[in-house]
Amino acid sequence: MRKSLRVIVVAAALALLLVLGSGIGSAKVTIDFWTLFTGPDGRVMGELVERFNEEHPDIEVVMQILPWGEPYYSRLATSVVSGEAPHVAICHDYMIPRFASTNAVLPINESMLEVLELGEDMFYDAVWNNSGSYEGVRYGIPLDFHGFGVYYNVDLLHEAGLSSEPDALPVTGDEFVAALMKMTKDLDGDGTIDRWGIIAPLDWFRAWSLWAGVWQNGGDFLSEDKTRSTWNTDIGRKALQFQVDLIHKHKVMSPELSVNPFLAYYQGQAATMISGVWEVLGAEAAEGLNYTVGNHPLIGPEKVYAIGSHTFVLPVQAKRDAEKERAALTFIKWILDNNLDWVKAGQCPSRLDVLEVDEFRNAPYLLPQRTIAEQGAYGRYLPKIIPWSRVQERIVSGIEAALLGKKTVEQTLADMDREIDAILARGR
Fold first, then answer.
1. Domains (range + CATH), the chain
2. What is the pLDDT of residues 70-89, one digit of tens each?
3. Which residues does 262 contact at the CB level (< 8 Å), separation at least 6?
4. What 3-state class would DSSP assign to 61?
5. Positive or negative: CA dihedral 389, 390, 396, 399
6. 286-318 residue pLDDT tens
7. What is the pTM of this model?
8. How many CB atoms lie within 10 A of CB 25?
9. Exposed / middle / buried, residue 136 (Cβ in 10 Å: 0-12, 13-18, 19+)
């Protein structure tokens, strides 16, 4: 009887230990994830986070969407200082220097890459080597890359006697201008243009086109040591003159720069629009729009495209937690393993293997991403300098002055050089 009782007690104790033991190490790890995806891309990322959480009962990712641009980056920087940083965050490639230089994000070391199961052979060279690195150290993992293209109204192409087949779309700047002139129309014969050949947002969209034009002609807009601005050269003048001539010489783009470019294009007031690959979501949603996408025209002999990336970064925590860090890496890996689903948010895949997936290669609704993804092999990223945001602001305001005719191309670029030199001298 005593022996039986002893057996029962021991068995009960073992059962209790098993119950208690099952909870050891199985508590859910919660990590915070910050993004600036405020449009439909935020919805897509939210759906991916939900799927990840369902498939990983031991990890919960809490996603927070913050306002796009400087408000996001200011809050991210403040969160690190206050010890309340998210465990994972999205960071544009050109913002990496700002956070790396202040030790606000962790370097991505070899052991982290082993968890991520990533290597340079899985990406375009430009994407892997430039999107997340600063001064030879990797801080970001590329989620995607994005380039710029031309959104064509197919019906207006055909009306002008032009083909909408991908191989027939303009490639060079001269071909592009010729097509725009055919699509620019005075529809009612009153001597004023009712439909423009092209429209483009004034801000940094045109800036990206500008430095792409410089690169395509073998130039650059910063000195090799990144201490001087080099816009005011024959190559710089050619790139800016191309944009000015669209308005004042060829008269294929409206001089009214305050016009909403997206509405103008969607409503048929402009036959084409230059924008990023992400604009595919807006084009798809535009009622009655029959569109296609071609690559940004080349205005020089070198095949170079300006591209950028969203990257994952690991903000520095008040107290480093290995378990949360590994959960963050697990999340990043899962998102990259499902890169095709993110591509549907209007981005090009960061991973080369996605390019070979049957859906990506053949689905009609992925034509824009498929077209612009070709730029990855010829892509070039922005220079990694800490005060990039202020430099870009100066470039944008310079372009506006030239397009409005307030300054000559030469004076615009001379002023840009002088003012950017002052920004670079301050360093931050």
1. 29-143+309-337 (3.40.190.10), 147-307+384-426 (3.40.190.10)
2. 999 999 999 999 999 999 99
3. 201, 273, 275, 279, 282
4. strand
5. negative
6. 999 999 999 999 999 999 999 999 999 999 999
7. 0.90
8. 8
9. exposed
